[in-house]
């Protein structure tokens, strides 16, 4: 922690040095040409207390030096984490394709789509049973019935599935049925939910909030890890910017940044990021070559009549085409689908 | 709903017109100089289905015309909603000052601060018992004990209090103790929590997410209202932007925009918005003259040793000074503290 | 400058220390619990060279400590700069109202508006002759004729005027006619233009770019000051965010932040910030109490037929009303109009 | 243009209809369930006047239907524009690699780097002679001498070069020496400069402003095209967001969006977008598969001693490695380097 002093008076500097030492840190004084700086050296516990020194009038700012996450960091664990999702694997030398509709709408719909995406090469099925919707008047999902239909689809196709969980109370129910629990973008800092999935036995698919920095994403992963669940998959799904041609702005550079900072697998969701089917293919391919461990893609057999996210869903034939285009890129990246 | 066609071919236009009518809308065709536009007239139910028409290749875009909230809107209810919080009122001709520490830390701390802010003119106490923290290693609040200490402070000072609730399960407990339930910025789109506080009997203090639009804030209020709880207070607390001199950017224009769109009271929180005590006073005053129904201000008796948010907390004497400066502005705004 | 090392190996640290000393800085080594940090102490010249050390693989990051502006800073000049604009003054104990149409459209229009705003209490007239427009097909201004009409309006009313200059070549012409030269938001980092107005004899009205940090705004002021022109007025006019209810987001906290960092006067333009006339009044009042040195307001005698920015222009009667509401606030702020 | 009425009173609607017809448009009335909407059909001239109707109190909003650019649009010209830069081509089936240092620093530096990038497969050299710098105290470029050195490098290697022009006055000089004129991100809406390069005989390399929408980028291209210069190359170089791990956020989805909207070539600059050399490779590869027509990459023989942008520059051997990785991706994309 580096404390930049606003004042250079001896008494002010001494006061801050004394505070720093009171908090159990060693204080190093650096007298610069125009500023005096105090480096506080010591254990990170109580860091927020050091930060509070910023409230002193003769302190200009307090600059943290260390990353705030630990368990999620590469420094603690060099090798890539490989997460087991039913019969599938995410991470390492595998490139994982997760596909399916935004919402489970009916037995026919989910089964048909599951068959389609499996044939095309997807290894994990997605489908929402509990839907987080901006409007209380929008379709909220089939709920428990949706989970049953996803299980049926798994039985028929062998595909494990990931589905979203919205509240801590839902965790036991969803955990019973699903192969992986999704924490959605709007819940990335729902700390009660993070703790609950951290105590679950199934892996967690954690989507970056559209307003969240990568550091915050890793801190949210840290919540899950620190509760004892080591199986966390991160997902970049676009951030909110001023641009309106796309629903969000896919931050593809998040992939190499995260792969450098953390051992956890990183998936890209080009469907939610762009909001438009015609952009899904190019962005999925960009994800492969940028080093992602997989993609999550919305596929619907009849997008124009989907209950949700129709505009961003691929038709089956477009998904098949995309899979063909992705295969050689995955090979070039040294991975296998 | 306005559907802008990418194609001008008769068969494409006819196809979309048929789809629109299939969904129960009346279609008006407008053939412009360069574009053909279809206006879909009818009941808003099923709107998401109209939006899904955007997935058709010959549709350029679908533009909604109506606001998506109803109960929160001025059109449904012209007069200002006045929310009763224990002995206090928010809305109408009242300017409400809510003050207190970020976190409840001890009996002495919360009681002393409660006394201070009451003397200076605050009508509602704030204080966090359950704290949403970016890091799992940060202080997470005194939890139930914190609620007890807030109750004690209420007994001693007569000030009703607002405190944050983090999960649906906590709602019954917090509702039992607190006079108003706060839904924090990070939970603004935690729809499970919104539904739970919507079924509570206590008023709800709903903070704008730091990357949420005003429309989304009103949609979240709509969740609470549509569950039967009419007592919602909105709070602007800064949005996330590229600027780094302040913790967030206080969107002060949100105040008149919201006052125009909704009948719900609007409070401004300059402490979280700016992240620095020296900016709290000017922004609180700006809130008054911009038409806010009140301010929420962090006050701490010893900011440099606060467990959280020290840098943005006012010392008691600075808070008293601010209250003196605010009074004449409130009067000019035609309100009373 | 603080250099945070990624490596803790002696040879890596020694290498960076050697580089730092090669560049003429003194290196202080701080060996922390988890990181090694090198503080580079010395003259700021060559700072970009220190920053380039970030390209070394064993360096994690380079953190600057000093503000990058000098002449614009309070540290160099404690007392407020007061800028003389014809017969008017901006800064110190004066609250300046600058008003007029977006564009000069005709002799009648500019003269009538000048009379109106003068009567209501404005001290400086605004009006665009050279217009920066997003589209090449939009009205580009009356150009030199517009300057003549502004001069006529000045003769008739005694109001000095500010008008925008778009290119270095236009500076001599605009300088000949105008009392203050405006550099628009889109040109805030047009460094050729900044240097040209820095060599002019008239004061400069520098608008914050909608994509610019306050630090960058002050660096652009530094360009003007370092060319020898000490008369710079800063203007906050809204920044670009994700919110769409307003044209931009007025960053009102920029006012106290800037007043703390710089001695230069700070004006707020609520018309461009909000894009809607109904929001101009509340935001102008917020500016007064937040500590601004003035406001710039668009007034048009017939907004529905304005050549540009009609939606955000005040009608004369609304402007008069606003001036009445502002006067007592200015008095409370300890200033005079 | 769609006008959404706030009022449903006959007189208010009639008033707007009359205004619309006065402006030469045909008005179509659509009476919805909750809103009345007026569609204004006609020639786009005078569009800003229609927009000004938003200032009428009984109008809620005015929604434009048409794209505001014309010459830059695919509707006017279906086939891809191919831009000739000296001996090189940008657009169509060519994938163009533009490489070189941020700034020209010396004869040895630019010549050596030119040789290196040519050998590795680059077809165009980049190098700044006039540098736009945030600080007036930073290195401002070698100016005319830099142009001479670039010419020498061209003579020795045969590589045509692109270099930035900062002001309209510099256009004739830079045009005399360079093969393509760069308009930098900070000047994307410097309309005087856009007009000047629009009258030049050399192609224009137009960088997206870091807080500019794609629509605004195309409008800036429209300025150049409408002055008579048909040779415009667009460049995505990252936009400003809240994320701080990267210098800017590379908006890779801009590539397919632009390729759909315009016939102009689209280049990606991963060096400025990310600000860090380790991210340049993955983002360059993402650009290829997302459909870009090329990349612009900063290469420096000694990044740790570069005069500018050291941290984001590739060393020669890393650039060679990247070129090897790019070749098979370019082939898969159906293009040739």
Polypeptide structure, described:
The structure is a homotetramer of 337-residue chains. The first copy, chain A, has 337 residues and is α/β, with parallel strands linked by helices. Chain A has two domains: 2-63, Alpha-Beta Plaits (2-Layer Sandwich); 83-332, Aldolase class I (TIM Barrel, Alpha-Beta Barrel). The first copy, chain A, is 36% helix and 18% strand. Chain A is built from eleven helices and 14 strands. Chain A has helices at 10-22, 47-52, 107-120, 144-157, 170-177, 191-198, 214-226, 254-261, 270-274, 277-290, 316-332; strands at 2-5, 26-31, 36-41, 59-63, 83-85, 88-90, 96-100, 124-126, 161-164, 180-183, 204-207, 232-236, 266-268, 294-298. In chain A, the strands form three sheets. In chain A, strands 7-8-9-10-11-12-13-14 form an eight-stranded parallel β-barrel, surrounded by seven helices. A four-stranded antiparallel β-sheet of chain A has the order 2-3-1-4, covered by helices on one side. In chain A, helix 4 links the parallel strand 8 (124-126) and strand 9 (161-164). In chain A, helix 3 runs parallel beside helix 4, helix 6 (191-198) packs across helix 7 (214-226) and helix 10 (277-290) runs parallel beside helix 11 (316-332). The longest helix of chain A has 17 residues, at 316-332. The first copy, chain A, is elongated and about 75 Å long. In chain A, 61% of the residues are buried. The model of chain A has no long low-confidence stretch (mean pLDDT 93). The interface between A and B is large, with 54 and 56 residues.
């Amino acid at each position: 922690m580096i404390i930049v002093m606003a004042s250079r008076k001896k008494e002010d500097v001494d006061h801050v040095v004394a505070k720093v030492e009171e908090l159990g840190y060693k204080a190093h004084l650096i007298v610069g040409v125009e500023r005096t700086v105090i480096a506080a050296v010591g254990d990170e516990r109580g860091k927020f207390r050091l930060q509070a020194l910023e409230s002193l009038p003769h302190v200009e700012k307090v600059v943290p030096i260390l990353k705030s996450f630990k368990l999620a960091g590469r420094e603690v664990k060099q090798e890539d984490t490989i997460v087991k999702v039913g019969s599938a694997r995410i991470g390492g030398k595998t490139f994982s394709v997760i596909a399916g509709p935004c919402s489970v709408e009916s037995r026919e719909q989910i089964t048909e789509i599951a068959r389609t995406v499996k044939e095309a090469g997807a290894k994990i099925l997605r489908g929402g049973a509990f839907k987080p919707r901006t409007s209380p008047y929008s379709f909220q999902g089939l709920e428990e019935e949706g989970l049953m239909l996803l299980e049926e689809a798994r039985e028929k196709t062998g595909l494990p599935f990931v589905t979203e969980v919205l509240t801590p109370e839902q965790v036991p129910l969803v955990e019973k049925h699903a192969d992986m629990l999704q924490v959605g973008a709007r819940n990335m800092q729902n700390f009660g939910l993070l703790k609950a999935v951290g105590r679950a036995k199934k892996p967690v698919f954690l989507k970056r909030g559209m307003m969240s920095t990568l550091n915050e994403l890793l801190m949210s992963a840290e919540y899950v890890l620190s509760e004892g669940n080591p199986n966390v998959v991160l997902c970049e799904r676009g951030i909110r910017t001023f641009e309106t041609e796309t629903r969000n702005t896919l931050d593809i550079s998040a992939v190499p940044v995260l792969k450098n900072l953390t051992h956890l697998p990183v998936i890209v969701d080009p469907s939610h990021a762009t909001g438009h089917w015609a952009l899904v293919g190019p962005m999925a391919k960009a994800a492969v070559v940028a080093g992602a461990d997989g993609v999550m893609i919305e596929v619907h057999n009849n997008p124009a009549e989907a209950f949700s996210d129709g505009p961003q869903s691929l038709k089956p034939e477009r998904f098949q085409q995309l899979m063909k285009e992705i295969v050689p890129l995955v090979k070039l990246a040294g991975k296998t689908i």
